[in-house]
Amino acid sequence: MPFRHRPATFHALPSSIPDRTMKIPRPKTHHDLLRRDPPTTSSPEKEQQQHRLTKLLLNVTVQRSLGPVHVVISPESTVEDLIRAAIDAYAKEGRMPPLVGSDPRLFELHYSQFSLENLDPKEKLINLGSRNFFMCPKRDKAATVVGVDSCSRQENERRHFTLSTVRDLLQSFVLL
Protein backbone atom coordinates (compact mmCIF):
# COMPACT_ATOMS: atom_id res chain seq x y z
CA MET A 1 0.00 0.00 0.00
CA PRO A 2 1.58 3.31 -1.06
CA PHE A 3 2.16 6.01 1.50
CA ARG A 4 -0.24 8.96 1.15
CA HIS A 5 0.19 12.37 2.68
CA ARG A 6 -2.88 13.98 4.13
CA PRO A 7 -3.21 17.71 3.59
CA ALA A 8 -2.13 19.94 6.41
CA THR A 9 -4.74 21.80 8.41
CA PHE A 10 -4.54 25.21 9.98
CA HIS A 11 -3.68 23.73 13.34
CA ALA A 12 -1.22 20.91 12.72
CA LEU A 13 0.57 18.81 10.15
CA PRO A 14 -0.63 15.31 9.37
CA SER A 15 -0.07 12.64 11.97
CA SER A 16 2.34 10.84 9.63
CA ILE A 17 5.04 13.38 10.62
CA PRO A 18 4.90 13.35 14.45
CA ASP A 19 8.27 15.02 15.06
CA ARG A 20 7.26 18.38 13.70
CA THR A 21 5.10 20.62 15.82
CA MET A 22 5.01 23.43 13.32
CA LYS A 23 1.58 25.00 12.79
CA ILE A 24 0.33 26.68 9.66
CA PRO A 25 -0.74 30.23 10.49
CA ARG A 26 -4.37 31.11 9.97
CA PRO A 27 -4.98 33.66 7.18
CA LYS A 28 -5.98 37.16 8.16
CA THR A 29 -9.64 37.99 7.70
CA HIS A 30 -11.19 41.40 7.26
CA HIS A 31 -14.72 41.50 8.58
CA ASP A 32 -15.41 45.05 7.42
CA LEU A 33 -14.05 44.57 3.92
CA LEU A 34 -17.34 45.36 2.15
CA ARG A 35 -18.45 48.14 4.48
CA ARG A 36 -18.40 51.49 2.69
CA ASP A 37 -18.40 53.90 5.61
CA PRO A 38 -17.06 53.62 9.14
CA PRO A 39 -19.50 52.16 11.65
CA THR A 40 -21.62 54.84 13.26
CA THR A 41 -24.75 54.82 15.28
CA SER A 42 -27.70 55.50 13.03
CA SER A 43 -31.42 55.53 13.39
CA PRO A 44 -33.63 52.83 11.80
CA GLU A 45 -35.18 55.51 9.56
CA LYS A 46 -31.78 56.40 8.11
CA GLU A 47 -30.98 52.73 7.45
CA GLN A 48 -34.35 52.27 5.75
CA GLN A 49 -33.65 55.23 3.45
CA GLN A 50 -30.25 53.82 2.50
CA HIS A 51 -31.68 50.39 1.57
CA ARG A 52 -34.86 51.54 -0.19
CA LEU A 53 -35.40 50.16 -3.70
CA THR A 54 -35.50 52.75 -6.46
CA LYS A 55 -36.27 50.51 -9.46
CA LEU A 56 -37.47 46.96 -10.08
CA LEU A 57 -36.61 44.73 -13.03
CA LEU A 58 -39.77 42.79 -13.87
CA ASN A 59 -40.39 40.10 -16.47
CA VAL A 60 -43.76 40.15 -18.23
CA THR A 61 -44.58 37.25 -20.53
CA VAL A 62 -47.17 38.26 -23.12
CA GLN A 63 -49.60 35.59 -24.29
CA ARG A 64 -48.50 33.91 -27.58
CA SER A 65 -45.14 35.72 -27.55
CA LEU A 66 -41.68 34.20 -27.27
CA GLY A 67 -39.85 35.15 -24.10
CA PRO A 68 -40.66 37.78 -21.50
CA VAL A 69 -40.53 41.53 -21.92
CA HIS A 70 -38.11 43.11 -19.42
CA VAL A 71 -39.47 46.23 -17.74
CA VAL A 72 -37.61 48.53 -15.33
CA ILE A 73 -40.15 50.39 -13.22
CA SER A 74 -40.55 52.10 -9.85
CA PRO A 75 -41.76 49.90 -6.95
CA GLU A 76 -44.43 52.49 -6.15
CA SER A 77 -46.05 51.99 -9.57
CA THR A 78 -49.30 50.08 -9.96
CA VAL A 79 -50.21 46.98 -11.95
CA GLU A 80 -51.84 49.24 -14.56
CA ASP A 81 -48.55 51.15 -14.92
CA LEU A 82 -46.71 47.86 -15.41
CA ILE A 83 -49.19 46.77 -18.10
CA ARG A 84 -48.72 50.12 -19.88
CA ALA A 85 -44.91 49.83 -19.68
CA ALA A 86 -45.01 46.21 -20.93
CA ILE A 87 -47.21 47.21 -23.89
CA ASP A 88 -44.82 50.05 -24.75
CA ALA A 89 -41.75 47.78 -24.50
CA TYR A 90 -43.48 45.07 -26.57
CA ALA A 91 -44.30 47.56 -29.35
CA LYS A 92 -40.87 49.23 -29.18
CA GLU A 93 -39.12 45.87 -29.61
CA GLY A 94 -41.37 45.07 -32.59
CA ARG A 95 -42.47 41.74 -31.21
CA MET A 96 -44.92 39.44 -32.94
CA PRO A 97 -47.84 38.83 -32.90
CA PRO A 98 -48.99 42.45 -32.60
CA LEU A 99 -51.18 43.27 -29.62
CA VAL A 100 -54.93 43.93 -29.99
CA GLY A 101 -54.52 47.51 -28.76
CA SER A 102 -52.38 49.81 -26.67
CA ASP A 103 -54.93 50.57 -23.94
CA PRO A 104 -53.91 48.94 -20.62
CA ARG A 105 -57.59 48.40 -19.78
CA LEU A 106 -57.76 45.80 -22.59
CA PHE A 107 -55.25 43.55 -20.77
CA GLU A 108 -55.02 41.76 -17.45
CA LEU A 109 -52.00 40.64 -15.48
CA HIS A 110 -51.61 37.26 -13.74
CA TYR A 111 -48.87 35.75 -11.60
CA SER A 112 -48.45 33.01 -14.23
CA GLN A 113 -50.22 31.56 -17.24
CA PHE A 114 -51.66 28.89 -14.95
CA SER A 115 -53.17 31.39 -12.51
CA LEU A 116 -56.85 32.16 -13.04
CA GLU A 117 -56.83 35.13 -10.66
CA ASN A 118 -55.98 38.42 -12.32
CA LEU A 119 -54.21 41.13 -10.35
CA ASP A 120 -55.95 44.31 -9.22
CA PRO A 121 -54.90 47.20 -11.52
CA LYS A 122 -54.60 49.57 -8.53
CA GLU A 123 -52.29 47.25 -6.54
CA LYS A 124 -48.75 48.54 -5.94
CA LEU A 125 -45.95 46.42 -7.40
CA ILE A 126 -43.95 46.39 -4.17
CA ASN A 127 -46.82 44.52 -2.47
CA LEU A 128 -47.10 41.73 -5.06
CA GLY A 129 -44.12 39.63 -3.96
CA SER A 130 -43.16 38.49 -7.46
CA ARG A 131 -41.08 39.78 -10.35
CA ASN A 132 -42.46 37.50 -13.05
CA PHE A 133 -45.92 38.02 -14.53
CA PHE A 134 -48.15 36.89 -17.40
CA MET A 135 -50.17 39.38 -19.47
CA CYS A 136 -53.10 38.45 -21.68
CA PRO A 137 -56.05 40.25 -23.29
CA LYS A 138 -59.16 40.52 -21.17
CA ARG A 139 -61.86 38.04 -22.07
CA ASP A 140 -65.37 39.38 -22.49
CA LYS A 141 -67.63 36.62 -21.10
CA ALA A 142 -70.56 37.40 -23.40
CA ALA A 143 -68.36 37.52 -26.50
CA THR A 144 -66.69 34.25 -25.55
CA VAL A 145 -70.01 32.40 -25.29
CA VAL A 146 -71.23 33.84 -28.61
CA GLY A 147 -67.87 33.15 -30.23
CA VAL A 148 -67.87 29.50 -29.17
CA ASP A 149 -71.43 29.04 -30.42
CA SER A 150 -70.71 30.61 -33.80
CA CYS A 151 -67.44 28.68 -34.17
CA SER A 152 -69.10 25.33 -33.49
CA ARG A 153 -71.90 26.17 -35.93
CA GLN A 154 -69.34 27.11 -38.60
CA GLU A 155 -67.45 23.88 -37.98
CA ASN A 156 -70.61 21.82 -38.45
CA GLU A 157 -71.40 23.65 -41.69
CA ARG A 158 -67.87 23.06 -42.97
CA ARG A 159 -68.07 19.34 -42.18
CA HIS A 160 -71.37 19.06 -44.02
CA PHE A 161 -69.91 20.92 -46.99
CA THR A 162 -66.78 18.77 -46.97
CA LEU A 163 -68.66 15.47 -46.82
CA SER A 164 -70.99 16.42 -49.65
CA THR A 165 -68.03 17.55 -51.75
CA VAL A 166 -66.26 14.23 -51.24
CA ARG A 167 -69.45 12.31 -52.10
CA ASP A 168 -69.91 14.33 -55.31
CA LEU A 169 -66.28 13.78 -56.24
CA LEU A 170 -66.55 10.01 -55.78
CA GLN A 171 -69.71 9.86 -57.87
CA SER A 172 -68.02 11.76 -60.68
CA PHE A 173 -65.14 9.21 -60.71
CA VAL A 174 -67.56 6.31 -60.82
CA LEU A 175 -69.38 7.80 -63.81
CA LEU A 176 -66.17 8.25 -65.78
Automatic annotation (TrEMBL):
Q: What segments bear the compositional bias annotation Basic and acidic residues?
A: 30-50
Q: Where is this region: Disordered?
A: 1-50
What is the organism lineage in this UniProt record?
A: Eukaryota, Viridiplantae, Streptophyta, Embryophyta, Tracheophyta
UniProt name for this protein: DUF7054 domain-containing protein
Domain spans labelled DUF7054: 53-136
Query: Pfam families recorded for this chain?
Result: DUF7054
